[in-house]
């Protein structure tokens, strides 16, 4: 074999054209060196191309629906598949909200187009930007705007979004802390602001918080208690009363006292309320609000219907304030996050939240729907 190989390089016994010199060992060595260098260079190019290809791939949860049915998988996604937007983000943390769990399990028609990456919250670092408002390396966060419903969301390692949907990450928060707060804490703060704008102060009386063990309820209790309000917490998990007392609740009541059909008016009990449950619970809360009180309605855990009466509104002057957190103007978002920085004790976040990896989200979603998870679920997209 060696002889044949050398023959091909000109060292063999085959006749040479007239005038061609016999190759020396040095010539052969040079040719071999050039051949191996070329092979090494080609291999390096292949590795570089492979690395570039891998750099454009990222992990994400993808929901799809077609003739084969409704499918949810953690999969590899090409960056070229990202939707339109002027800011591309390396997502470090997201969350699993109730709405996300509904989308993942397919129990409610949350997703408006397919395929879809769920996740209504995200925090991370700007990878690329076509707007002067944000530059590469900036820390940003997002809540709402239909992301995870009609536009690819945060339960992936990358996202491409409209810059007007983003706000800077608060200086006092890490991405993980911002996601521990997330839409739930942001919505709770918007609800508290609505009560304050109605004129509520701690000396007006007790404040009822329904869905107390959930994300919004947990943050509402923590914020109100720190502001000096006496908070009554309604929950279906009375066995976890100690947790609610740690957040600042003065009293814990069983949600069964509010979740069944009730009367149009009952004894005046609370100066205000924050309700994330809806349905009969919201109707009964309104029936028990004091004269000129206010209720912030921000959720529908029990149901979207409102089987109530106008009696609290026309006989006691009760105000029902709807809390929209999805398309809230930027100024309101900045105000809410600014107030969270001053009015929420970040030391409570480990009590309110737990962290999971992106690979665990699909399995956890049904538990969240079933009410088996307390507080917040923060998602580390790197695991």
UniProtKB/TrEMBL annotation:
NCBIfam families associated with the record: oxido_YhdH (TIGR02823)
SMART domains: PKS_ER (SM00829)
PANTHER family named in the record: ACRYLYL-COA REDUCTASE ACUI-RELATED, SHORT-CHAIN DEHYDROGENASE/REDUCTASE
Stretches of the chain forming a coiled coil according to its record: none
Source domain of life: Bacteria
Native organism taxonomy: Bacteria, Pseudomonadati, Pseudomonadota, Gammaproteobacteria, Pseudomonadales
Pfam families: ADH_N (PF08240), ADH_zinc_N (PF00107)
Protein name: Oxidoreductase, zinc-binding protein
An MF annotation (GO) of this entry: acryloyl-CoA reductase (NADPH) activity
Domain Enoyl reductase (ER): 69-379
């Amino acid at each position: 074999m060696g002889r044949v190989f050398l023959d091909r390089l000109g060292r063999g016994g085959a006749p040479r054209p007239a005038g061609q010199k016999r190759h020396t060992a040095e010539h052969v060595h040079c040719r071999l060196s050039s051949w191996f260098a070329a092979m090494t260079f080609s291999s390096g190019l292949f590795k570089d191309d492979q690395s570039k290809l891998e750099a454009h791939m990222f992990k994400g949860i993808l929901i799809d629906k077609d003739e084969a049915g409704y499918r949810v998988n953690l999969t590899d996604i090409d960056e070229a598949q990202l939707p339109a937007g002027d800011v591309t983000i390396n997502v470090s943390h997201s969350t699993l909200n109730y709405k996300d769990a509904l989308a993942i399990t397919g129990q409610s028609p949350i997703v408006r187009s397919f395929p879809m990456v769920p996740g209504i919250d995200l925090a991370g670092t700007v990878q690329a930007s076509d707007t002067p408002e944000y530059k590469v390396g900036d820390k940003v966060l997002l809540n709402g705007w239909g992301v995870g419903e009609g536009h690819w969301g945060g339960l992936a390692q990358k996202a491409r979004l409209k810059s007007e949907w983003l706000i800077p990450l608060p200086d006092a928060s890490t991405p993980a802390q911002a996601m521990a707060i997330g839409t739930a804490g942001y919505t709770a703060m918007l609800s508290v602001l609505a009560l304050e704008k109605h004129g509520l102060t701690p000396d007006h009386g007790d404040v009822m918080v329904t869905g107390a063990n959930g994300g919004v309820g947990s943050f509402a209790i923590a914020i109100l208690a720190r502001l000096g309000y006496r908070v009554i917490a309604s929950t279906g998990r009375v066995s976890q009363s100690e947790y609610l007392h740690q957040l600042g609740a003065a009293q814990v009541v069983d949600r069964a006292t509010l979740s069944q059909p009730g009367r149009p008016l009952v004894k005046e009990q609370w100066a205000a309320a924050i309700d994330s449950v809806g349905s009969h619970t919201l109707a009964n809360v309104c029936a028990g609000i004091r004269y000129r009180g206010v209720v912030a309605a921000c959720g529908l855990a029990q149901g979207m219907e409102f089987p109530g009466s106008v009696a609290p509104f026309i006989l006691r002057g009760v105000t029902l304030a709807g809390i929209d957190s999805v398309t809230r103007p930027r100024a309101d978002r900045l105000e809410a996050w600014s107030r969270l920085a001053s009015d929420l004790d970040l030391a409570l976040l480990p009590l309110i939240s737990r962290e999971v990896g992106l690979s665990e989200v699909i399995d956890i979603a049904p538990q969240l729907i079933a009410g088996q998870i307390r507080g917040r679920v923060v998602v580390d997209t790197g695991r």
